[in-house]
UniProtKB/TrEMBL annotation:
Family membership noted in the UniProt record: Belongs to the SusD family.
One Pfam family of this chain: SusD-like_3
UniProt keyword list: Cell outer membrane, Membrane, Signal
Organism of origin: Pedobacter xixiisoli
Full protein name: Starch-binding associating with outer membrane
Amino acid sequence: MQHIQKNIMFLVAATLLLVTNGCKKSFLEITPASQIEESNFFKTELQATQALAGIYHVLQWGNINQGHTPLMGWAEAASDDAYSGGGSSSDAVGVKGIENFKVTTTAPFNANDGTYGSVWSIYYQGIARANTYLANIDRVESTDNFKALTTGEAKFLRAHFYFDLVKWFENVPLIIKQQTPDEYNQPQAPPQEVFNQIAKDLTDAMTVLPKTSMKANGGRATYWSASALLARVYLFNKGVYNTDLNTGTRTIDAAAVRTYLDEIIAPSAGFDLIGNYSDVWRKANELGIESVWEVVHSNVQPISGSTSDQFRAQGNYNVLYFGPRGVNGTPYTAGFSNAVPTESLYQAFETTPILDPRRAATILVLNSTTAAPGIIKGWQHTGYFNNKYNTTAEYKTASGLNDINWGQNLHAIRFSDVLLMASELYIGVDQTKADAYLNKVRGRVGLGNRVATIDNIRHERRVELAGEGIRYWDLLRYGLPYAKQMIDASSLIGPYYNGTSSLGGPVTLTGGANTPANAYQMDWDVSKRGRLPIPPAQITLSNGVLKPNPGY
């Protein structure tokens, strides 16, 4: 694998204060000032705090190859909920390759595409920062409480990075300590070993992280964040590999996960559903009562203020990625029209006896009456756009680069997701509780009660969590045949194909080439197992120690 520097250079904040007043951006909104060698670092509590912020900062990247392709957007485009979209058939070819998983060793969807290698690099940089922190925290002159707490945060973040990494690549090296030069070339570990380490890191973190809200904790991970992430890890691992998790000292089975989820759901934990579903993504509700784990973003500019310096920016790239192309009016600013929602998703929402209000909150429809001035028809145009993360005036700042200044937080795990995970795990165990958790989610939007069944849970998760980068991983844990069935079934052109609509008349469009009908046809390649290729450049660097993934 790509060598990771022994001496990590940390991004040092000119001013970085730990606060407890709940200021949303207090911990991660940092002003870059300089870099310091590791050997001169880890002496004071402030330096340790700065190093910890550097680990959190990797969460904000979400952007690969110094281009505008956020990883949540990739997960959307890989699912049945969105097409890759973009400006043309050659725009963001890397994501188009995973739309059907047609990645090969040749053009146009070449496994050597730098974007796949960048995904690998992002996560290993985050892991390296966490490992460096864990190796050096005992050198810091501070209290045992500070060391224990921040060690828990570093382990939580390492688990977070490894979970994303193993989901995308499946067969990855497991590195949990700083490497010496003769340790750089590591073979891939069995996926179950990686999942067990993730579980160990999360349970370790849970012993020290506070049982408080993210707002009260300054936007940092909490006990609840770790336990909810552990539940998500368990469900994915159980679905794909049909085995429980093992930390080395205990087994994490369904009963244990139900207990963790019940803790979060208990009123004493302080979580609840926000009354109006669409308000979840408003600025006033960031780090609110529905946020169990949220990635904090800000509009702080990178050192150079250039898009080539994006890895040091702190904005949410999903906003620009999902936004409608070419608009120049209010309330939308021009975006890249990537990961455009499918007609299949649009039709998934219930319409009787009432229209599910989550459809309008999730899918922005720009038709003849709502289109902003100047909208340009993109590739695989459907007339639909992600309405949860969009280029609205609420998050736009007056200065800075349009590309990198979107400060909208990423709602990584919401309370409704916790309820649905718990409902799923209580089916056949405590049906009354399973039904209650499911119908609490449905009741928020005025829908009638349903019995909690696997099919009903799958439907509810799709419409409740659409546009949040979750659906694809659910499809994989439901099984490859099911994933193929649903992705192939999303081959619906929809009523807004090429800018005309049988529902609302023609859309006012400028520019853009018509998309051929076959570009909407999905034929998912099961042989790839829904995973990215191990980057060929990494295989070469390893002298063959790293092995290609199945199907490549």
